[in-house]
Structure formats: structure tokens, C-alpha cells
Records
---
Amino acid sequence: MTSTFTVHDASGYEKLMGRWSQKLAPLFIDFAGISAGEKILDVGCGTGSLAFALLKAADLKEITAIDYSPVFVAETIRRRKDPRIKVEQGDACALAFDDGAFDRALALLVLHFVTDAGKAVAEMRRVVRPGGVVAASVWDHLGGMPGMRMMADTVAALGEAGRQFRARYCFQPMMMPGEMRATFIEQGLLQVSETQLMIRMDYSNFDDYWSPMAAGEGPFGKFLSSLDAPDRARAEAAVREAYQAGQPDGPRSFANVAWACRGIAP
């Protein structure tokens, strides 16, 4: 298995992260660059946020979208309206494509969930033509997601299981400053550059924030599912208090930063 991301239901993922991927995708496309007539590989397509945004950004020849999860593959196929998007189940560390088959290989919010991120970058480089672009982005869990870090710090204060979860969550692959850039250079990419992209995550109330995690989606959902019922209730009460911060429940807005990196295939 090459993905550590937990997904049960596409609609739950949309509420947890897909809606934010849609906001981040145009910023990532601007950074990665795109030109009409290109063939693009979308590695780890999720529910299609990047693939669908790419079609809006340029008149592309073809987009091949792959994901390890059959849940995501099925949902992207269901949402697909344009035949230029091809959707397949695939492994980021063993891409089933010929060398130089694409003009660009892009990965939006994927590499931190791949067990061997360096191998995935190497594979993306392999399937891109000489002079083509490899680009990726990951959330900065350690310092750039205060809304999620709020939960990680809260459950860490409740016990050892929470502390262990926080350590795993904050130090996933590719998240430290310069880490993704160093990996791109190690894999032979040229003219490598790294930047930060920022969006805001806006929640209507605590339930809007909490419910997808309570349903078991994503890293937090996996952690919550590992707790017994009393500890889950204790975690929910503590995180609710942190979210509300002494004020009535209601809308909250959190700034969120993603690292983004791009390089040129030799």
C-alpha cells in the first residue's frame, strides 16, 4: 500500500478536504504553469479537484487522473463531464506509463501521504518529457494549518495517544521547509523552486468542522476511530471548547498554508 490517507466516503472527504482542494487548485496551477495542448498527469486525483480546475485553466489535450483509492477513482469518474479526462486506479510509486508520456506531472496534496515520497517524485520525473514540469504541493501541518493544529494540540493535552498522533501528523513527509525542494533536486529535477500557497478554510459552525473527522475521514478520523467511546466524547468536548474559544458556536475562518515545489525534467 502506498497511501496512508484514510477515506471511507467521497462526500465525507469533500467536507473534510475536497472543498479546500478546490480553492487551492487554481493557485497551484498558476505556480506549476500550464499551456494549451498539453498532456497532464494528475497523481493522486482524489475527487477530481485538480483535474477539473486544469480544464478551466487551459485548452488541454488530455488529463490522466490516477488515485490509489477506488473510492476516489469511482467518484472522479462519476463527476467527469469531459472525455479528455481519463481516470484510472494507480500507484504513485509505480506509474503505469511510458517514459516521457506527459508534458507535466502534478500532485496536489498527495506526497505527504505516500509512503516513499522520493520514489513518487522519481516516477513523476520519469513519465514527463525532457523539459516538462513536475510539481507538487502539501499542507504545512506543523506551522501552516492552525485550525487542524488546534485539534492536534488539544488531543495531545488529553493523553499519550494524542501526543503520539500529533507527532505523526506534524512531521509527515515533505512538510519541513526545503524538504520537498531537496527531494526534487535529489531526483534530478532542474531549476527547482519552492513557494507557499495560502487559502482560508471557512466553517459555518463546530459541526461543519468536526463531523467528517467524527465519521472517520482522514488522519484525524483514523485517530478518533481508535479511541473508545468515553475518550472520543472527551476529545470532542475539548476540541469544541478550543474551536469556540469562549464565544458562541458559529463561523470560524482559519488561514492555511501549503508548500509547493516545481522542477524541470532533464
---
Amino acid sequence: MKTNFFSVCLILFLTVSCNQKVQPPQTVDVKDLYSIEIPGNLAKMEDLYEGADLQYGNTFLQTYLVVKDDPKETNMDFNTYVAKAKATYEKRPEYEVLKEDNVKINGLNGKLFELKMNQGKAVMFMIQTIIEGKKANYQIISWTTEKNKDWQGTEMMNAISTFKEI
């Protein structure tokens, strides 16, 4: 009897889980400045990153994506902006730059940093992309736990690569 009940429950679970719909990515426009494609497994959130206009995440997957735009200042060149953006993390203990690259995303130049750092007891993996736009400078920051790095890192990069200045 227990075996039959377990079998029925297992079949019901597998049937329901196979019918789950995966949400497609959605393109979000922000302040007539930029658009970015958000993965379907992320939901709108608040208070993830101070000053960010776009904030999405999934607490179950521990994956987050934020975008912050900063008006171009005439007295600050892009390299100074990059150094200022990067400095917000350099003060953290056990902070490590895993990778640093020059990138071009939809015609805009930028810098990409892959970072590893401690957040309390958790070790986090972060991709910080800093883009020099025509209208503003942008920071696209996405992070997850280090154990999810390989799985979520590709999805994070796919989202970042869809960034477009409008």
C-alpha cells in the first residue's frame, strides 16, 4: 500500500513539474536611457543596491542583477569613473579580482570585472560591468553565490550582453 501511494505521489509530482512554464526573458526600458533583457526567473526587487534604477533578483537562486546610471560629469573621464566604481568593493575583506577585460556591448565600450568576495559567511561571485554610454555611464552588477557561479554566471553574462543605450 505504501509503495502504491509513493508511486502515485511520484508520478503526480513528475507530471506537475514537467508542466511548469518557464517565463521567457523580458526587455525592460529604464528612463528612456537604456534597455536590458531580464531573465524570466528574476523578479523586480527593491533595496538591493543604493541608487540603482533597475533591481531584479531571485532569492531562491541567490542571483541578482542591478543597473545604475550616472550622468556624465565633464570633469571625470571614463577611467576615473571605472576606478570610482571599482573602489566600492576594494575595501571589503577577502576581495579578489578573478578577471578584468575590456568589452564592447552593443557598440559601447566598457570594462568587465569578475569578482569573488565574502558577504558575511557566504562567498559571492560578482560580475561588474562598467559601460561608457553617450548619455550616461552605467554599472551593471550581477551576483550569486560562488557555488552557483558556473550555472548562473552564463545567464548573468547573457543578460549583461543585451544592454543597449536608447
---
Amino acid sequence: MTKYKTLAEDLKKEIQSGFYSEKERIPSLREIQNLKECSLTTAKEAYRILEEEGYIFVVPQSGYFVHPNISSVISGPQNEFYPAVEADDRIQQIMRTVMDPKLISFGAAIPSDFYLPLGGIVSSFKKALKHKEIFSYGDLQGNPELREWISKRLSIQGYRANPDQIQITSGCTESITFSLLSSTEPGDTVIVPSPIYVGLFQILETLKLKVVEIPYRKEEGISVTEYEKLIKRHKPKVFLFSANFNNPNGILLSEENKQNLAKLSYQYGIQLVEDDIYGDLYFSGTRPKPLVSYFPSDSKSPKSYLCSSFSKTISPGLRMGWVASKNGIRDLSKRTRAYKISENNPTQMAVLQYLKLQTFERHLKFLRSEYKKLTEEYIKLLSFYSEGILEIQKPDGGFVLWIKSPLDGDKLLTESKKIGMAIAPGSLFGLSKHWDHHFRLNVSVGFSPKIREKLIQFSKLFLKKRKT
């Protein structure tokens, strides 16, 4: 690639990232020549390409500016800043439909009962009820044996946190909430990837936090260059993310990407809150390390929090999660006690009894195999019966599909209800309008003949719309 084409591509990425906003003036030819250490001819040719492709326009005597309709030419969401999040009402309204028991819910990221070890859990509750101490308040940080089990397992995954550095919580959402409570104040700025789990916006709104969205890029995950520019521009307090099989797009960040993001966060003093709830559901290879495992552990290190739960692997109704933090658990535990005296003792004991059966790893192996197979079957069927209209992003793990379609996601939800099913529209997973033509589908619903027929009907909705 020639020098001027390389420069043009670099400038496109900067515009795509939102580093330069719509209608904002960009450096002059002379300024870009100095900034990029290139010749004036190279700069002129690069700017010519940007003009031709609709990225910039020139105002005589004033300079070059980002095109006012830049969103129509970029391939992904810009890095947009939101001084306030107002998502709760919209989310609640749509989620009521998604969770309607009269519909087959392909929209909610809830594992089907078939993929849960319900028999083992029932037996474990019976064993737990024999322990009289479960009817009293327990340890303020959670059952010590359960924390020790989590500690040992985290160590195998590459993150060494002792039992005293772990807090049991009522699910992963609560883990994230308390982590943010411990690392921010109202009015602080948080960087979040886009798209990302819908429930996080409700947390951010409640805590009155400002938000900057950084997109997942297909080629590299989260761009380190974009991340650094956002840090310099917005001075965020926290980076809130999911590095392993992000919900909804299933992306797994590479080890190199994780290392670079951890290094940059440490350098600028950014605290990390990582949602690792899908980390055990990888389709191939070995269990990926959490990003926080690459964060240096020393007295100067910003706080980092690793959040997860058993909701996606054992049972969502148990509401049993945890936070691991090498330097922030004391403050976090103090905050949890302001809301409740202790965790649910009977449930903690039941989960511990199940884990002692030593069948958890076998269960996870079953889940990984089943979800990989279901993912492949869903993609094959949807692609065939929609005649290739759908752009399906193949995930690296988890049990949801992220799909782009020619139809608006909110309207697609209305159409899908007519055939007795529900999907999760893309508008739920970001604050910008970029995901309006996307939707999420839960493959753990299964692949029975009834489900297969329902998916075929759903796929044909796109053909009908194309004909009209």
C-alpha cells in the first residue's frame, strides 16, 4: 500500500473512532504533515481520498472538516459521549415483551432448563438443609469454603486471588453494581464497549455516570489507539467491559489485545470492571484468561474487579455470583454491608454441595459441546431460509447470536410476536442508533422440531419484506 493510502486509512480510523466529531475541523495539510511525518504531497493525496469517499469536506479559507453525515459512510459506531444515560424506561418496555411467557423467548439470554443440572441442584439443596448454620447470618464476605473453591478455580484460569479477596454476591449484575459503586462517584465517566449487555445501561443510569462508547472492531477487538485517545479526551474513571465472549456479539479479545488494554489502563490509572460471566463457555482451545489477569499487582495499581456468577452455567434463579479484587475488596465489602447484612446462606451452601460433587467440569464440557453445535445449526438454518439476507456474526463462545438484518430490530420484534416468538432488538445493546438493524438470538432454546419450524417461519419474514 502506498504512503498516501496508508495515511488515508489511518485518518479514516480516527474519524470512525469519533476522535474527530461531525463538522469538526481536522488538522491542516501542514499540520498533518508534521503530525504524521509525511510529505506535503502524501498529505494532499490522502485528503483527496477522504474527500472523494465522503469523510471530509473543505471550506475555503477555513480548512478541512469532518462530513456532517459521517455516520452514513463509516463501518461501525463512533466513540460517542453521553453526559447522562436515560435507558431504563425503554429497556423495561421492550424486555417485558421479550420475557412474555406466552412467546418462545429467543431474546432473553437465559439458558434453557434442559442445559441446567437441575437434578444435582435439587439434591444439593436437600444436603444443604442438614446444615443448621445456614439459618443464621453467615460470613460477611460469603461462605468461606465457597470463596476458597472460587479462589482455586480462578488461579487455574490465570488470576490469583485468595479467598479474602473475594466477595459473594446475588448474581453478576450485583457484582458489577458494587464494583462501580466502589470505583466511581456520580458524574464520573465510564468507557463501555458497544454493543454490550443491556443491563449495564440500567446500572450506569442509576449510578448517574457519564458514558463513552467504544466499538468492538472485528479485526482487532477493542482498538488500543482509540482507547488511548478516549482516555486523553474524556479522562474516564473506569473501563467496564467483557473480554471473553461479550454479550451480544460473542467476541473474544485476543491475548495480545488484553495485554495492551491492561497496560494502557495501568499507565493512565484507569480502574477495570470486567464481566466474565461467559468465560467458561468457550467453543475451542482452553479457558481464556480474564483481562484483569494482565493488570500489574503493585501498590500503584488502579483497582480492578473481576465479576462473574453461576447464572449461565448452573442456574440463573440461584442468584449466586462473586467479585474478585486484589486491591478493592475491602471497600466493596463495606458497601455491600450497607445494603444487606449477609448473603443467602442456604443457596451458598447448596451451590457448594453441588460443586463438591466434582461434576461441574463435566457439566461445562457438555454445555460447550452443545452450545457450539446449536450455534452452527442455527447459523446454517437461518442463512439458508433467509437466502443469505442475514449477516450473522459467528461467536467464539456463549450461547447467543448477533445478527444484522435489513429490518429495524424493534419492528422485527413486533413481527416475530405474530408467529409466537420474541427476539432482542439491537437497540437494547447500545446508546447510539447504530444497532437498530441488529438483533440477538438465544440458541440455548434448543433445536426441537417445533423450534426448528419456528426458526424457519422467522427466517421467511425477511423474504416477505424483500418482496414488498
---
Amino acid sequence: MGLDPGALRDRLDAGLACLGFDPELAQRERLIDYLMLLARWNQAFNLTAVRDPHEMVARHLLDSLSIAPYLSGDEVLDLGTGAGLPGLPLAILDPRRYFVLLDSNGKKIRFVRQAVLTLGLDNCEPVQMRADVYRPAKKFATIVSRAMTSLAELRAIALALTARPARLLVMKGREPHEELADPSLTSNDVVVHPLQVPFVEGDRHLIEIRFH
């Protein structure tokens, strides 16, 4: 595993250009700082199966940022954030929005809290709690998730956590045809967006479930 910040920055800059983003230098540095912190913690705490920082640029940073155009509202919930994905990269890219990073895993939330502190992010709130019992004072216009469970189960959880209108954005690999056939997911409420993530081979899709 090589932690070469220069090579990581070059790969990130190329990927951001492909996605059509041009963040400030301080934001790019924060993205790299987050990745390097994740790589170091990952050696001891096994936070992600991706071990190579060079690969993390694409599979964690660019993959997370690819859904930025689909966010709406001022507050976003990252449901099952794990090591802060996709919430932390999105929060770095979009400091005007406030992100709640929710996960029940204490080890992962400890890392997220450390990352928020180290990076000086004042638009993030890490919360350790199970999603089915989390009841925030203010509901969300957008919920994002890296497919922590089935679409139907995520939709059921999101119903109690969203204002109206709202959207649930679920990141998937291949288009989940069987899950989309669930009766609770009507065609009028679901839009499938193919995603093009720089340097990531294979299919990537964003499943948008709309609440009216």
C-alpha cells in the first residue's frame, strides 16, 4: 500500500474533471486527507475491504461524489455511513449542506468522528444508532445509502425519516431488477440512474425512490 499524496491528487483531479467538478484546492486537499486517514485507520480497524489508497480514490471518493447532482434540500442523512461514505466526501464537496452520518457500528462511528474533527468539518454530525430506532427532531429531504440492505427495507426505514417531498438515493452496482419488482416500489416512485464513475470498472447505478 503506497501513500503517495501526489499520485493520489493527480488521480483525484483527473476523476473530478471527468465528473465535471472543479472544487477549491482546500476541498481537494481535504478529500485526500480523508482518504489518507481512512487508509491508516484501515490497517488496524478493517473499516473497508479496499486496501489500496490509489483504488480508494475511485471506489470511495469518486464513487461517492458521482451522486452529488442528485441531492436536494439543506440536510442530508447518510444511512449506514460505515467509514463515512458517501457522506464525508459529499460534505467536503458541498459545505452549504448539513450531513448526518448514521451507523450503529461503534468502531466505524469513532473513525467518522475523528475524521470530522481532523478535517474541521462543521457541516457533519456523526450519530451512532440503529436506523430503525433513529428519530431526528427534523426530517430529511434526501437520504443516501450505499445499499446497506434491500431497497424495500431501506424505503420502509426512510418513510419515518423523510419530509415531503423527499428522495432516497441508493447506490448499487448492477441494476437490481428483482428488488425493483417488489410491490412496495411502484414505477411512479422509482427512477434508475446509470452512473459513470471514473476508473471504476463494472456497472454502477443510483436508485432514486421518491416520496410525495
